[in-house]
Amino acid sequence: MAQYDVNLREYWRIIRKRKFIVLVIAVILGIFSTAFAILSAPAPLYSTECMIEIKRERLVEGIYSKTIAWEDSDEH
């Protein structure tokens, strides 16, 4: 009985020779797995709403006075 020694080059040669079949199978599996994930997704249990209020400060002095605290004390 003949012994065949298959290495990575042999596998790579087979994949290159059958690249169209490998590509088609990969695309088909991707489509089916995406469809399965979408169709078997559970219904959402919770829903929420959010409202954000943004206030703009028109004066630059007002912005700086709120962020910078001036202290005259000399603590070292």
Radius of gyration: 33 Å
Main beta sheet: none
Question: In percent, how helical is the residue content?
Answer: 40-55%
Which blocks of ≥5 consecutive residues have pLDDT under 50? none
Mean pLDDT: 82
3D architecture notes:
By secondary structure, this protein is mainly alpha-helical. It has a domain of 42 residues. Helix content is 51%, strand content 0%. The protein contains three helices and no strands. The longest helix is centred in the middle third of the chain and has 21 residues. The protein is elongated and about 90 Å long. The N and C termini lie far apart (89 Å).
Q: Secondary structure elements and their pairing?
A:
Elements: H1 8-17, H2 19-39, H3 60-67
Task: Quickly describe the structure.
The chain has 76 residues and is mainly alpha-helical. 51% of the residues lie in helices and 0% in strands.
